[in-house]
Structure prediction request, 364 residues.
Amino acid sequence: MRNVIIICNTYYQLIMAVQLRCTIKKDDDVTLILSDQSNNASCVSESLKKTGLFGAVYFVENREFIKKHASRVKAAKDVFQAVTGNIKMYSFLSEDKKYDELIFYNPDTATHCLFAILYKRNTDMIVSRYEESIISYGLKCILDPKMRMIYMIRRIEGKKNLLENVTSFYCVHPELYRGDKVPIKIPDIKEDDIKLRNILGGVFGVDRGDLRYDAKYIYFSSIFDIEGDEPAGELALIQRIAELVGKDDLLVKVHPRDDVKRFTDAGLKVDARSSVPWEIIQLSQDFSEYIFLTACSSSVITVSAVTEKAPQIYFLYKLCEGDNDQLINASHSIEDIFKMGGDKYLPSAHIVDTIDDLRQMLKV
Prediction:
């Protein structure tokens, strides 16, 4: 039995962590850290503790910590903490416990600080990443100036760095992975997986008998209006779609890290369950007759890639007018998926070039 620690910043990552714990990590002592980068994460972490699935569950507030700040003092402090591991954020971890493996997805400053702490306790610790849907298979990690400073100082001090120490990549479809790490398959999430469904349904309070979605079109917002070098213009795109299909027949599934109010202020209908991971909802209901729309959200393909009854999916990133670097990066991953043959997992998915093409595809 090994001591494994998994850090989750999104609910999809949590789903993958639960699947890992139930399958290939079932014989290990797994500690889970859930951050406040997703709405209502504190309550979710408390519910997760009650399941007894993990050896320990911790909630950490790192959302403000990882935000970009103009202050040079803040940047210098971040560098110091990521180099030394001297930070109170993870003080809940026992100083006597050594971890054999760290599993993460987001290489943000908070994760680098966690790595620095764990590395001091076990310099032989294995470091692995896990997927954030198929889209993440081709995304590259780019170090900003602050990260480059952290890496340079740690190298001078003879210490390993987080990304340079990653050896494996846990993913559902290793055959689509084209990175330079060793892919390790996460067992597929099946529609009839009662254990996983009951655990996640209980944690998020999802009652399958109470699920009702009356709108034919469901738009999945991304994070590209709130993250990246400039807004992608996704809200404006959703408003254009509402004009095409009618506001009453369009429902917006708001990203857990986005602000619901900016959509309701625009007169759009939003999913009241937007804090619940869509993957859990889709596993609980047949959406084959619905139409999913998104700029580049991975939520539309997660379950759709493993279910026999997939809805029609339209990727609309070419219709966004903002020059957002993260959207561009994510769109390249979507295109790479199709080039690598990923369309066999997504036979109902389409990339839309213009608003007129979308109008013809939707026949509106």
Notes: The mean pLDDT is 89. The chain has twelve helices and 13 strands. Residues 82 and 113 are 4 Å apart (CA to CA).
